[in-house]
Structure formats: C-alpha cells, structure tokens
Amino acid sequence: MTSRPATTTLWRPTGPAELALLQELDWRAWPPRLPEQPIFYPVLNEDYAIRIARDWNVKHDGAGFVTRFEVDTEFLCRYPVQQAGGRTILELWVPAAELDEFNAHIVGPIELVHTFR
Fold first, then answer.
1. Per-residue b/e over 83-101, b at no fewer than 16 CB within 10 Å?
2. Which residue in 93, 75, 66 sits closest to 7, CA to CA?
3. Which residues have C-beta within 8 Å of that of residue 108, sequence separation ≥ 6?
C-alpha cells in the first residue's frame, strides 16, 4: 500500500491564455513560461490569488481565474516563501527552468475555483 505524500495547497491567479493552455494539459501541469517570464509564481493563500485575478487579470485580460492545486510538501522545501508585500502576500518563486520538475510533484488535478469577468 502506498501512502499519499503530505501536500501543500497552492493557488494560481491566471488569465484566459494561461487557462486555455492549462486545459490543453488536462489540468495536470503548468505550461512552460514565456521568455519574458523567468519565474513561475504560485501563491500561498486564496485571498491573494483572488485579488490578483479580479483586480489585475480582469483589467488586463478581460477575465481572471483562480486555480487551486496540491504539491508534495517535501519537494516545496527548496523554494523559500517570499513575502511580496503585506504579511499575507506570500508566494513561491519557481525558476522557469525547474517548472517541469515542479509539475511532476503536483498531486492530483489543478482545479478552477473562481472566475471573474
């Protein structure tokens, strides 16, 4: 019997283009970063993800989405939590070159949990 690894819940605010790519990957992995995107930024709380999707993605892309997903906690230890503003504005900074390995440690599907238009 294999046990499921301990996981950490992460959130990702996305726009329509990234959401379409996520769907093409069957909700199992994040798409490769564009050359101007050297870092993948998942966030550690839902409220922060909602603010970005609602207040930034809608303004710039016409729609914003919040996704939720689980990642192997032991693997995530390599990425120190970054405080990007206030005490609840917490993110991980995953180098684009490590995204395939990061994706391999996602446990279960990525879920769409909020839509803003």
1. eeeeeebebbebeeeebee
2. 75
3. 69, 70
* Alpha-helix residue ranges (DSSP H) falling in 1-117: 16-24, 46-52, 58-61, 73-76, 99-104
Model pLDDT for residues 11-31, shown as the tens digit of each residue: 999 999 999 999 999 999 999
16-19: long-range pairs with CB below 8 Å, 24+: 16/61, 16/62, 16/63, 16/65, 17/61, 19/65, 19/67, 19/112
Predicted TM-score of the model (pTM): 0.93
The conformation of residue 3, written as its DSSP 8-state character, comes to P
- The separation between the first and the last C-alpha atoms of the chain, rounded to the nearest angstrom, is 45
Give tens-digit pLDDT for 91-106: 999 999 999 999 999 9
45 close to 8: Cβ distance less than 8 angstroms = no
Q: Is the dihedral of CA 86, 116, 19, 56 positive or negative?
A: negative
Give the rounded distance of the alpha carbon of 79 from its chain centre.
Answer: 14
The answer to whether 107 and 71 have CB atoms below 8 angstroms apart is: yes
